[in-house]
Amino acid sequence: MTGETGVAESPWQAAKPYPVAEQWYRRLDLENGVTRFWEPHVHPLEQANFWHIRGRDRDLLIDSGMGVVPLRASFPDLFDGRDVIAVATHTHIDHIGAVHEFEHRWVHAAEARQMEKPGGVVSLVCSDIPPWLRQLFLDAGYPPLEELLIDAFPHADYNPRAYRLRGAAPTRLLADGDTIDLGDRIFEVLHLPGHSPGSICLWEAATGALYTGDLVYDGPLVYEGPGMDLEVYAQSLRRLQALPVRVVHAGHDPSFGRDRLDEIIETYLKRWGM
Ligand SMILES: [Zn+2]
Ligand SMILES: [Zn+2]
């Protein structure tokens, strides 16, 4: 890792010029008080969705992107004067970037340490990612990781070398079967490991909406890597098959319905011979 050797870092010398993004975040307001966010200038591998859900007494934020740009200040209409519970579906870099901005930070107990002191990919500089891990992402079907995990800067004098995934200590540890109550709507925590040991999905039975994090999305799933387990992954997918899902709001790529969920699950179970 850079920055740990005591050697002064050189200023960022880009191999190519980076444009300045007009806006960092994209936002789509959906039905039922749900807002989807994503970061279009982040590499497809780490370009995650995160979700704001308005409740009567408090709001829920499911994941928080990369943390390249402060999140709360970017959306005062959603966050100002509101009690917000920030839940992480798991603790990869693209899901906990802005979690430190929130007072209530909840994660499954199995990833408590990782949320407080993130490891693995914590930098925007691709050469900081070990070559074997870059190869694994390539093999999974993602475009090559070249210079940076972003293709534009949030402002003209941005220094991508100064970025480090911060993380923050969780304030509540979640377990399978826990419920999150917003006053007028309830989400159930499903512990569904496989992509990572503490991966959770959030299930809102009243609307049939399932928030899956990186367990299932409509793109190349990443299932071989540190903390990942195929047997466990398959078990988690089978548990989803039993839920009366209407819509899946996933950690990456656009949302989809029940039929596509079944197709994706069957594709991977078949590929793994399970
Ligand atoms: Zn992700
Ligand atoms: Zn992930």
Task: Walk me through this protein's architecture.
The protein is α/β, with parallel strands linked by helices and 274 residues long. It has a single domain, classed as Ribonuclease Z/Hydroxyacylglutathione hydrolase-like (Metallo-beta-lactamase, Chain A, 4-Layer Sandwich). Helix content is 16%, strand content 20%. It is built from 5 helices and 13 strands. It has a 7-stranded mixed beta sheet with strand order 1-2-3-4-5-6-7, with no helix packed on it. Strands 8-9-10-11-12-13 form a 6-stranded mixed beta sheet. Helix 1 links the parallel strand 4 and strand 5 (84-87). Helix 4 (230-241) runs antiparallel to helix 5 (258-271). It is globular and about 50 Å long. 38% of the residues are buried. Mean pLDDT is 94; it is low at 1-10. One zinc ion (ZN) binds at residues 48, 92, 94-95, 214, 251-252. Residues 48, 92, 94-95, 214, 251-252 line the site of one zinc ion.
